[in-house]
Amino acid sequence: MSEELAEVVVLTGAGISAESGVPTFRGAAGLWRTYRPEDLATLDAFRRDPTLVWEWYDWRRGLIARCAPNAAHRTLAEMEQTIENFVLITQNVDGLHQRAGSRHVLELHGNLWRMRCTMEGIVVEDYRVPLPSIPPRCECGALMRPDVVWFGESLPAEVMSAAYAAVQRCRLMLVVGTSGVVYPAAALPQLAHQCGAYVVEFNVERTPLSLYADEVILGPAAVELPRWWAALISSGKFSTAS
Ligand code: BV8
Q1: What is the 3-state secondary structure (H, E, C) of 136-152?
Q2: Would you kindly state where each structural domain of the chain is located, as residue ranges?
Q3: Is the shortest distance between the CB of 218 and ligand 1 below 6 Å?
Q4: Less Cβ crowding at N or C end of the chain, within 10 Å?
Q5: What is the pLDDT of residue 29?
Q6: What number is the average pLDDT over the span 185-197?
């Protein structure tokens, strides 16, 4: 593998799942249009009305269960198989990277297919749609919560430190389908740029992160990312693993 691609890191946001039919948070048909983040994706909202918050997640789980990974997700899974030092970091909680075949995914904001006991902290995977009862409860009787990171909550420390380490050592960083609004995830491309990485942004419009990109490729990720990867492979600059 050629040196310039020794380490490749990718950060994805809701935009990579848009063509799978999963609504983004801040776009035209964004999730937040219907609901306001402070009303639902916060611990206070959950404590105030766990039923309302779980009804929102149950609706999202049902919607995502009917969606399939798209060509952009599949391209990243292929890149993981092909590039020796490859790290995928996602802000998404939909699990579509794993369904596309990505095996190592740093989930900064958790995953809505997992839930956690609010008393014991035990985490379980649960793919039932719709949920048989809302709000779901643990066998111990305590409320379960979605195993996601809400606004005002810290990101999992071990995931964040792995993400920071990968970003600081990478030669190439792809930033796919994120508005660059939510921190600390949005600080990662800037850090990569400051550490000398070549940054390529894939989005349908420019974002605050475009400032730190060496290249901004405008267009749907499901079209542009596979095209970019195919061009890189055919350029011979990068031979696929035998
Ligand atoms: C925290 C899980 C410490 C839940 C989510 C500075 C430092 C630290 C914190 C902050 C800070 N400034 C502000 C904060 C607070 C806050 C924050 O960032 N607020 C924002 C709104 C200003 N951050 C936090 O609270 C974080 N916690 O830092 O802890 C702390 C503790 C206490 C007090 C302070 C700090 C926690 C943030 C995590 C919140 N959880 N999700 C759930 O999903 O139910 S965030 C949510 O937004 C999703 O995870 C989503 O992924 C994420 C980011 O959005 P994007 O992925 O970018 O999606 P978006 O819709 O915005 O954009 C889509 C993009 O795709 C667009 O650009 C669009 O053009 C593009 N697109 C559309 N279609 C396509 C496309 N691109 C390509 N192809 C297409 N077809």
Answers
A1: CECCCCCEEEEEECCEC
A2: 1-22+69-109+156-242, 25-66+112-148
A3: no
A4: C
A5: 66
A6: 98
Pick the CATH number of 25-66+112-148 from 3.30.1600.10, 3.40.5.10, 1.10.3720.10, 3.30.70.580: 3.30.1600.10
DSSP string, 110-138: EEEEEEEETTT--EEE---SS-SSSS-B-
CATH topology for the 1-22+69-109+156-242 domain: Rossmann fold (3.40.50)
Whether the pLDDT of residue 98 is over 90: the answer is: yes
Element (H, E) at 107: strand 105-107
Ligand 1: does its nearest atom lie under 6 Å from the Cβ of 12?
A: no
182 CA → ligand 1 middle, Å = 3
CA of 96 to the centre of ligand 1 (A): 17
Three-state DSSP state, 88: strand
Active-site residue (options: 73, 97, 104, 109): 109
Whole-prediction pTM value?
0.95
The tokens describing 50, both together, are: 């766990």
